[in-house]
Every structure is written in structure tokens, then in C-alpha cells.
Amino acid sequence: MGERIIVLGGGVIGLASALELNNRGHQVTVLEKSKCGGQASGAAAGMLAPFSEIGEDPDDFFQLCLASLRLYPTWQKEVKRLSNRGFEYINSGSLHAVYHEADLLALETRQSWQKDWGTEANILTAGELKQKEPELSDNIIAAMHYPEESHVFAPDYVRALEEACRNQGVTICDELEHVSVLEWRGDIKLQSMDGRIFTSEKLVICSGAWAQELEETFSLRIPVYPIRGQICAYDNLQGRVNHIVYTSQGYLVPKGNGTIVNGASEDIAGFATDVTEKGILRLTNWNYQIFPFLKEMKPFHRWAGLRPATQDGYPLIGSLEEAPHVIMATGHYRNGILLSPVTAVSVANIVDGLAEHVPLNLFKPERFS
Ligand SMILES: Cc1cc2nc3c(=O)[nH]c(=O)nc-3n(C[C@H](O)[C@H](O)[C@H](O)COP(=O)(O)OP(=O)(O)OC[C@H]3O[C@@H](n4cnc5c(N)ncnc54)[C@H](O)[C@@H]3O)c2cc1C
User: Fold this and answer.
1) H/E stretch holding 171
2) pTM: predicted TM-score of the whole model, two decimal places
């Protein structure tokens, strides 16, 4: 018989962890203060792009991201099977585009170490790029092509995770308004705003940008901050863009329904999730430098979400030294959709006392204290 486990937070990290724990025979309850997937996870562009995101060096964070990308083909199939829901997962490949000769050197540096990690990454000249993306701006002089990078339609993926959890017997209590941790040193006891008490043997904290609220409870520094991402989408562009296109100023992701997602700002605005004219203009004033045809177009949809950023840019994944039955999985900043499978597997391995899937030393929750 498995253990009783509470997962605090029903975003992509909480739901993926709940599903994996349930699959391993545990009795899992997810406590969510609003709607599952209603925060950062439902707002994401859905890119699965470790090579584009991490250009500096192959540290443990890069390895975590890469391991997760490589879990995705099997993981997404399993989520679809368990949920009876489809969602888009497209292996489009990506182009990391540059505009200046000087940036070519940076691409070559990336390529030199990234090649060692099994990618077919290739630097394409302007002429070669035209064959892959005929409408790309003439100002782009080269791009790194990463064939392995992919994307999901994030809102549908998170909905499927929730459905899979429900179908498999995870208890999901949502719209709880607020949940506080009353006891955690021995048995776990939490209370929701309506006075309901929830108890368990283990607790997994997946509360995204709100994790810092628990600093006092655990007497621990948890420097997780909300970084607002404003993002927009164009419609009716079926077939005009084939790859994820990354630049230093923003990215474009072509979805299967003919929309192109254009992201994203990085603003400090507390917990505000409104969209500002300035935030969207920063994206739209640039993106014609990627595809000139976008100059004449207006986005049909704009939205924003709060990325859970940490002080050092790495997530917090691991159990508390003082209370090993309390596990943190938060602070996934720009890559929580990508990192959901590997985080779920890592959390479940910690709960089950199994060896780490990838090294987690860099992500220790106590590292800021
Ligand atoms: C515009 C934008 C674009 C992005 N694009 C990408 C991308 O292309 N690829 C990628 O990998 N990532 C992307 N991200 C990042 C990704 O969305 C996040 O890293 C990820 O969603 C974090 O998941 P989470 O479950 O930790 O957080 P959330 O999805 O925010 O979930 C946390 C949940 O916890 C709940 N909660 C908080 N406190 C409590 C409490 N006390 N009690 C109960 N519930 C609580 C919240 O209500 C929330 O539902 C993007 C983010 C944004 C905003």
C-alpha cells in the first residue's frame, strides 16, 4: 500500500508529480487554491527547448532540461492514454537566429559543447534558412537548427494532466481560496479557507510563484518571485512558419491550428497578471524583424502569466533536510512545461527512496538559507 501524499498546487508541476506518484501506487490529493492550470502553466508558450534556452554550459540544469525533453515522447503518450484526451505535441525543430557576424561566434561556442549531448545542431547560412523558412527576414544572417526541440499546446496539456489524475484516482480539491500548512514536522496537516483539514504522511510543495509564502512556516529562505510574462498570438497563418524561431528579443511558436504565439516579456509587477500596451508593443515592434509579414498584422489574443523565478535561476527540487517527508518542487521559471516529466519522476524517486534520475544537488531547497 502506498503512502498518503498531499500535493500543494495544481499547476503543471503539481499535476505531473501527482500523476507519477499515483502511478507508483500512492494515494494522492492535490490542493489548489483556484483552478488547476489557471496560473503560469496555462499561460505558457509550451516550448520544449533546452538547447535554445541554455547556451552557456552543460551544467546540471541543462542536463535536467535535456533529460526532460527526452522523457517527453513517452510521457506525452502516457498522459494522452490515461486522460483519454489529445493535445498537441509537435516536433517542429527550432531555429536560433542571429543578425550580426559577431553573434556567429556565440552560436559556434554553443554548438561546440552542445554537440557532445547528442544533438544534430547545425548552423545554417541565410541561403539554407530560406529553404526551411522561406518568409524569414533577410536581416537574419544565420541560425542554429535544433531538430529535437518541440512544443506542446500548454493549456491542453495541463487539462489532460488534470483529467489523467482524476481518471486514475487522484483526489483534486480546487477553488480552496487559500491553504495553510498547520503541521509538517511529524504528520502533515493542512487547512483550507473553509476550515477543512487535510492530513497525510508526505507533502509536496508545488505552489509556483507563491512558494515564498511558506518561508515563515518552514523557517527557510525560499526566494521565489513572480516574473510576469506578457505574450500574444496571431491567427490564420497556417503553413507560413514551420519552426520555433528564437531571437535575442523574443520567439515565435507556430501552433497546429494556424496561430503563431509570440512571447514573451519579463517584467517585475508583483502578482499582477494584466496585459499592458507597452509590454505587447515590445514584442510586436520587433517581430517583423523575424517575419516581415507580421508588420501588417495585429495579434488577435494577448495574455500574461507569472513565472516562478528563483534568485539563482534554478528550481528548488528536493526534500527538506529537517523533514525529509516534505518535498519541494517549485521555481521552474521559464521552463516548467519542459521540466514537468523529469520533475515528476524526480519527486516520485525521492518519495520512494530511489536513486536520482539526474543529479539534483544544484537544486537543494536549503541552498539559500
Ligand atoms: C508567458 C509565459 C510563457 C512561458 N513559456 C514557457 C515555455 O515555452 N516552455 C516552458 O517550459 N515553460 C514556459 N513558461 C514557464 C512555465 O509556464 C512555468 O515554469 C510553469 O508553468 C510553472 O509551473 P508550476 O506548476 O510551478 O506553477 P503554476 O502553474 O503557477 O502553478 C502553481 C499553482 O499553485 C497554486 N497555489 C499557490 N499557492 C497555493 C496555496 N497556498 N494553496 C493551494 N494552491 C496554491 C496556484 O494557484 C497555481 O495554480 C512560460 C511562462 C509564461 C508566464
Assistant:
1) strand 171-173
2) 0.98
Q: Is 279 in the pocket of ligand 1 (CB under 6 A)?
A: no
CATH 3.50.50.60 spans which residues of the chain?
4-83+154-223+311-368
**All cell numbers assigned to 37:** 492550470
Mutate to test the pocket of ligand 1, among 207, 314, 342, 347 (most ligand atoms within 8 A of CB): 207
d(CA 31, CA 14): 9
Ligand 1 within 6 A of CB of 263: yes
Distance CA 275, CA 232 (A): 10
Which value, in Å, is the radius of gyration of the alpha carbons in the chain?
A: 21
Write out the CATH class of domain 91-147+225-310.
alpha beta
Q: Are strands 188-192 and 179-183 parallel, antiparallel or unpaired?
A: antiparallel
Select 4-83+154-223+311-368's CATH number: 1.10.287.180, 2.40.50.100, 3.40.630.30, 3.50.50.60.
3.50.50.60
Alpha helices in 11-55 (DSSP H): 12-23, 40-43, 50-53
Mutate to test the pocket of ligand 1, among 334, 340, 342, 346 (most ligand atoms within 8 A of CB): 334
Cell (9 digits) for 215: 518561508
CB 223 within 8 A of CB 311: yes
Rounded distance between C-alpha atoms, residue 177 and residue 193, angstroms: 6
Q: Indicate the top mutation candidate among 17, 19, 20, 32 to test ligand 1's pocket, ranked by most ligand atoms within 8 A of CB.
A: 32
Q: Are 197 and 232 in contact (CB under 8 A)?
A: no
What is the three-class DSSP state of 198? Answer: strand
Nearest to 149 by CA among 226, 65, 206, 215: 65
254 lines ligand 1 (CB under 6 A): no
* 38 in contact with ligand 1, CB cutoff 6 A: yes
Give pLDDT tens digits for 136-188. Answer: 999 999 999 999 999 999 999 999 999 999 999 999 999 999 999 999 999 99
Tally: H helices and E strands in the chain: 10, 20
Determine the average pLDDT of the residues in 239-251: 96
